[in-house]
């Protein structure tokens, strides 16, 4: 049900970004880029001392009229940004959380692959499949 | 698969054909269209083809699994030999020639034969020691032995052999391979983006010269992808190990594309040892990365291989994982496309393979048959009795389990469910309500209520009453209820009752529903199975109602209503009358209490009415008027605008009167007590109640009782002018009411918790059923 999912590296460059439908890809790219500011703001707001206790799920970053942007940041400052369509009524918070959890799990699987160099773009097929499964429900 | 035994050549041939038909490269299902095409090409009459398909079970399954396909091929061979088609003939007929598929398949077959023979030639040329095997059958064996020989031999020797061999091979094989390429792209086999035969068979021929015999042998079966070209070029540059692997790989591919032969496995183990001497240890990711990078596969593919083979996702490879990874590397180098999921034969044996049935493989069909078998047992074990008697509750059996667990843990669950009990008169007698963690006394009360409600003549042991009750109402439930009743009554152990009660509640729920038609309910049809709690909540509420009615009618002095449930005493003359109606009342209560909201507002009714009763010494009419006055209030509170509300109120009045009468010690025979003011209205109310009861079905007596109880409170000031006894009676009634209300509250809370549990379980189920399946 997400329309766009992006994985941003610590240095704020995208490791993986995918959106459907394809024609709005640029728009979603831009949205994700702008949402990074909100992510940083939320992260810094929590304070440096609370890094350990900081919740990974950031919640709704900002809503627009068409869609909502959710954020999630890992302990290694890798950010997951998800754009969901606002018309998808009642995508509950815990559903978003579970989606992020799956994203995170897949990301760690990708990381575990010794052939993956951190900082490379993610080409893993399993990761692709998982992301596709999360985005397919867009009606 | 009926124990199909294939010779080696047949195995090879069939595997190739299956791969040919395996358009989607699932390694498990052969495309129906392609299979049919193939069979048509076998030049058999259509009836025979259909018969074959039926015999092999494809029509039964709806698709061509690998076993079905093999059986079908064997049957084609049988048919082509002119033998009658029988399932037994699959194994009994020996030395059956390979099935021949004419027309377009001629090339394939001829290619196969020639390739096989060429393989034999190659083998012969390779080893120089092993004479060319006489037939195809020998090819594999020869190759296997050859492989073993080669694996042991030096690298250079192999490499030198391959260039030597290849020129010989290329002339005879290239046409085959070319055709193969043509065939495969046209077949669209494997998800490779094959542009067309042109672009790759020319480089392929080039590469072929440099490639080892594996390439040509490869052409004999599964289609080499375009990447094979550079794969083969890289093959030469790869260490000998890889080359040896290739050759071995070819031999194994005939049987199962992903099965590891013994030599291969041994080789892999040796390689594992070079990295990690301990066979039970792990190869760290970095070491594995270096090792596999040597194979010169692209990092992306290596990454994918890693993803497939690192089954436990720990970043390290066990021996099994390493072998699987190595095997995949070899396969990839030989042109096999990497599967999306790990083939079952490569799965690390540490894992329960039955669960990994999702991996497409030959055992796919087995997996299918296995999984459904596993599913039902998993659901039923905890609820055997339930499932036996109530098949419709199977789906909710899991819920039951969870609920029973939860109910056992939640102590505050009150008889809320009882309030929601269906209007079935039978449900009133249902025991299961006590499932909740409510204190045993409530159970006792409920049991007694049921008992009293159903049979007032047996005030002693609830158990005694229950069986007859059950037999009266729900014979089917009787056994279950009896058990539950026993468990509840005997031990008053919440834990026991909780586990058994849910089942019974469910049973009773269904029963109640079944009997709902009998009772003159006004409530909606019984709730569906997924909401059993409500039903038994209803039953429990019924009990509660009965408690009230019983207490009031039987002048139990709140015995039944209070935790230390005392068997209801036989009622005085009033008893018979109320007795008769009590079941009806109970029914009415049940029906009425089908919705909890009704009960809550009913309580004020009780209060009102009880007040009325206590102080309604003046006249019945006055009291009736008062009641009537309070009726609107009650009605408003009740949110029920039924015209019979007044009747219900009156009814409740009667009940309240009964209750108040019961509370007062002197009320033992209120109908006959010397209390002048109260008895009169009570009597009248009883009468009216009797009249009303048959008319009104649903109105909960509990409501009436509560209303009466509540009514008694405001009337306290009035009682100042009344007898002291009346005051005391009112006090007692109030206390009783308090107790009742407290119990009601606990019940309601319990019901609430049940509903919440239900909700949680439903949410869990919903989550499971959502497309977001967890990884």
From TrEMBL, chain A:
Subcellular location: Cytoplasm, Perinuclear region; Endoplasmic reticulum; Golgi apparatus
Cited InterPro entries: Longin-like_dom_sf, Sedlin, TRAPPC2L
Name this polypeptide is given: Trafficking protein particle complex subunit 2-like protein
Example of a GO cellular component annotation carried by this entry: Golgi apparatus
Gene giving rise to this polypeptide: TRAPPC2L
Biological process, per Gene Ontology: endoplasmic reticulum to Golgi vesicle-mediated transport
Pfam hit, one: Sedlin_N
Coiled-coil regions listed: none
Predominant localisation class: cytoplasm
Keywords carried by this UniProt record: Cytoplasm, Endoplasmic reticulum, ER-Golgi transport, Golgi apparatus, Transport
Similarity remark: Belongs to the TRAPP small subunits family. Sedlin subfamily.
């Amino acid at each position: 049900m997400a329309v766009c999912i992006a994985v941003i590296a610590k240095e704020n460059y995208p490791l993986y970004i995918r959106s459907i439908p394809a024609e709005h890809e640029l728009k979603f790219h831009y949205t994700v880029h702008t949402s990074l500011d909100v992510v940083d703001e939320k992260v810094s707001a929590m304070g440096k001392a609370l890094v350990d206790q900081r919740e990974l799920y950031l919640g709704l970053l900002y809503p627009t009229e068409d869609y909502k942007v959710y954020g999630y940041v890992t302990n290694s400052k890798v950010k997951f940004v998800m754009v969901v369509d606002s018309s998808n009524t009642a995508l509950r918070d815990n559903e978003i959380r579970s989606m992020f959890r799956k994203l995170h799990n897949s990301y760690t699987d990708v990381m575990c692959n010794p052939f993956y160099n951190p900082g490379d773009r993610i080409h893993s097929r399993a990761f692709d499949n998982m992301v596709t499964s999360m985005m397919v429900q867009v009606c | 698969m009926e124990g199909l035994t294939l010779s080696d050549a047949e195995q090879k041939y069939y595997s190739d054909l299956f791969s040919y038909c395996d358009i989607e490269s699932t390694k498990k299902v052969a495309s129906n269209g392609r299979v049919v095409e193939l069979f048509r090409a076998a030049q058999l009459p259509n009836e025979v083809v259909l018969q074959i398909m039926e015999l092999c079970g494809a029509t039964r399954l709806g698709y061509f699994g690998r076993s079905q396909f093999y059986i079908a091929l064997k049957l084609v061979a049988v048919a082509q030999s002119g033998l009658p088609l029988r399932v037994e003939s699959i194994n009994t007929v020996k030395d059956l020639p390979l099935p021949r598929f004419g027309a377009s398949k001629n090339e394939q077959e001829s290619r196969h034969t020639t390739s096989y023979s060429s393989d034999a030639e190659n083998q012969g040329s390779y080893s120089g020691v092993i004479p060319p095997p006489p037939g195809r059958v020998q090819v594999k064996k020869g190759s296997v032995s050859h492989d073993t020989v080669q694996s042991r031999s030096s690298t250079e020797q192999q490499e030198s052999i391959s260039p030597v061999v290849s020129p010989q091979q290329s002339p005879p094989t290239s046409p085959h391979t070319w055709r193969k390429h043509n065939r495969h792209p046209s077949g669209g086999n494997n998800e490779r983006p094959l542009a067309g035969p042109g672009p790759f068979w020319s480089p392929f021929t080039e590469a072929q010269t440099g490639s080892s015999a594996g390439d040509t042998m490869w052409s004999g079966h599964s289609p080499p992808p375009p990447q094979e070209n550079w794969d083969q070029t890289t093959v030469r540059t790869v260490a000998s190990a890889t080359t040896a692997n290739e050759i071995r790989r070819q031999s194994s591919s005939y049987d199962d594309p992903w099965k590891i032969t013994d030599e291969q496995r041994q080789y892999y183990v040796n390689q594992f040892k070079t990295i990690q001497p301990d066979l039970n240890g792990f190869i760290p990711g970095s070491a594995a990365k270096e090792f596999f990078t040597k194979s010169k596969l692209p990092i992306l593919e290596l990454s994918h291989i890693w993803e497939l083979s690192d089954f436990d996702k720990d970043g390290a490879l066990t021996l099994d994982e390493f072998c699987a990874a190595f095997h995949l590397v070899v396969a990839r180098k030989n042109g096999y496309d990497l599967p999306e999921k790990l083939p079952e034969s490569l799965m690390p044996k540490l894992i329960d393979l039955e669960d990994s049935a999702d991996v497409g493989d030959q055992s796919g069909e087995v997996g299918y048959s296995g999984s459904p078998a596993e599913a039902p047992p998993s659901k039923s074990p905890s609820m055997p009795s339930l499932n036996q008697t109530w098949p419709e509750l199977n789906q909710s059996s899991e819920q039951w389990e969870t609920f029973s667990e939860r109910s056992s843990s939640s102590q505050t669950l009150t008889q809320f469910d009882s309030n929601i009990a269906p209007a079935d008169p039978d449900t009133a007698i249902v025991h299961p309500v006590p499932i909740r963690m409510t204190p045993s006394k409530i159970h006792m009360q409920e049991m007694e209520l049921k008992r009293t409600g159903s049979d007032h003549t047996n005030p002693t042991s609830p158990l005694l009453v229950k069986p007859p009750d059950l037999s009266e109402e729900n014979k089917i439930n009787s056994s279950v209820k009896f058990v539950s009743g026993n468990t509840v009554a005997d031990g008053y152990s919440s834990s026991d009752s909780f586990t058994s009660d849910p089942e019974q509640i469910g049973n009773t729920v269904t029963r109640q529903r079944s009997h709902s038609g009998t009772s003159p309910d006004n409530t909606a049809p019984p709730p569906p199975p997924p909401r059993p709690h409500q039903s038994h909540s209803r039953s429990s509420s019924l009990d509660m109602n009965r408690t009230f009615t019983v207490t009031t009618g039987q002048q139990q002095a709140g015995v039944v209503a209070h935790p230390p449930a005392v068997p209801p005493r036989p009622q005085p003359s009033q008893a018979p009358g109320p007795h008769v109606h009590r079941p009806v009342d109970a029914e009415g209560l049940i029906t009425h209490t089908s919705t909890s909201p009704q009960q809550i507002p009913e309580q004020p009714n009780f209060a009102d009415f009880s007040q009325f009763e206590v102080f309604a010494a003046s006249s019945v009419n006055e009291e009736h008027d008062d009641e009537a006055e309070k009726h609107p209030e009650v009605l408003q509170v009740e949110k029920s605008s039924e015209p019979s509300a007044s009747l219900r109120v009156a009814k409740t009045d009667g009940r309240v009167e009964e209750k108040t009468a019961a509370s007062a010690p002197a009320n033992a025979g209120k109908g006959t007590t010397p209390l002048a003011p109260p008895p009169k209205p009570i009597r009248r109310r009883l009468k009216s109640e009797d009249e009303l009861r048959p008319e009104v079905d649903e109105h909960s007596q509990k409501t009436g009782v509560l209303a009466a109880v509540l009514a008694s409170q405001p009337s306290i000031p009035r009682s100042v002018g009344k007898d002291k006894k009346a005051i005391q009676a009112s006090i007692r009634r109030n206390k009783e009411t308090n107790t009742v209300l407290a119990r009601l509250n606990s019940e309601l809370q319990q019901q609430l918790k049940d509903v919440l549990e239900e909700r949680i379980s439903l949410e869990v189920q919903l989550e499971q059923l959502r497309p977001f399946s967890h990884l």
